[in-house]
């Protein structure tokens, strides 16, 4: 599982990526032949597509600026007598976390 990092968090320490001007991607244009060009768009390698960078001095020592940390968690799935094939067991809000997004659910489907 991945959880949001709350340790040594410096809100506002990130800045707009200079490599992509905050868009999260770079556009590469190359000429293929007479009058023909190719335009390719790919994620920025400096900010890994996030559009922001964090300086080394402001980077959290726990998450290294990624804003999430791996965490092990044990979920106990109780299958009750009489449960049917295809029935779902849901753990609300227990899925991987990501900054600025709602956490999803973990759903087990019985087979």
Automatic annotation (TrEMBL):
PROSITE patterns the UniProt entry points to: ZF_CR
Q: Say if the entry is tagged with keyword Chloroplast.
A: no
Any one GO BP annotation for this protein? protein folding
- Could you tell me which CDD domains the record lists for this protein? DnaJ_zf (cd10719)
- Cite the residue ranges of zinc fingers (CR-type): 1-72
User: Keyword Repeat: yes or no?
Assistant: yes
- Name the domain of life this protein comes from: Eukaryota
What terms describe the molecular function in GO for this protein?
Hsp70 protein binding; unfolded protein binding; zinc ion binding
Keyword tags: Metal-binding, Repeat, Zinc, Zinc-finger
In this protein, which residues make up the domain named CR-type?
Answer: 1-72
Q: What is this protein called?
A: CR-type domain-containing protein
> What lineage is this protein's organism placed in?
Eukaryota, Viridiplantae, Streptophyta, Embryophyta, Tracheophyta
